[in-house]
Amino acid sequence: MLMKKVSFLFVFAPLHLLIFANAYAQTPKLIKTIVVDAGHGGTRDPGATGQYENSLRSQEKDVTLAIALKLVDELKKQIPNVNVIPTRTTDIYQSPTEKAKIANEYKGDLFLCIHADSGPLKQGRRKIGERTVTRYKISYKGKGKRKKKIKTPYEAIESVYEYFKMPLTRNGTSVWIFAAHKTSAKLQAIMDGDENFEIEANGVDSVDSGLDFRTPEGRTIAAIYAKRFQERSDRLATMVNEEIENTGRQALGVNQRQKGIWVLQATNMPAILIETGFINNPEDERYINSEKGQQELAEAITEAVKRYKAQVESANNVTPIR
Ligand SMILES: [Zn+2]
To answer: Which of 18, 127, 182, 268 has a CA-to-CA distance to 283 between 20 and 30 Å?
Structure first.
């Protein structure tokens, strides 16, 4: 009896998952809601700041907000049938938990995080003048107990330096996705999500209410979603990188941060993070603070989202699970 039960499970379970995975892979999901997150915010979390000499002293939270707002406008203008949700539209503090919660509650199909990069700054110095100082030459006279220390003053010329923070030489835009080995956190976000996980079947919305992510089967299905989300995040990230490259900007490619990016893990949807430019690189800081640069970035990201959306939604484009 036990043997029979075991073999039944062995045959049934994988078959069931195969059908499920196949249905998911072949039925395109519509991109209906896009969540745009302006990274950081408020006095509690300003993010990185321009700190090199002659920097604009701009703050990451302001740059991310300006670009995110332009991106929201551009997405609405170019893809009118999608719902575009900004996590914030003003300078307010939000914890990463709150940001992820907004994305999950609005049932986003895409999560776009806007950030600006930074890095440790080296200290430089330059000579700004000279000054005369009195130094002492030490000599000794006598022997034994009578030994005496003699200090003879003399004048010396000393350089005067000014110290400053050197700007970063590194520049460019990079795109980040959640790390593969961190998919368990993504899995948890999926499992914590709506019990009535929405699945597209035959091009029509259907809700599989019988899905329980707490069961071993449900967990496997959640893992399929996590893998799928990662593939889709990677695909979109690649397109963003290509569109950045098309603007003539330095495109640094698609990366997986080893430490993991919490907000990308905690969202129940494909998610990417764009480091728009280095706030401590002079050209980049000026670019990400300029109307032109912000608009160019917003348009490049929008173009990538349009391409991604078209590819995902195209009924003719059946992408098998890689
Ligand atoms: Zn940041």
So the answer is: 127
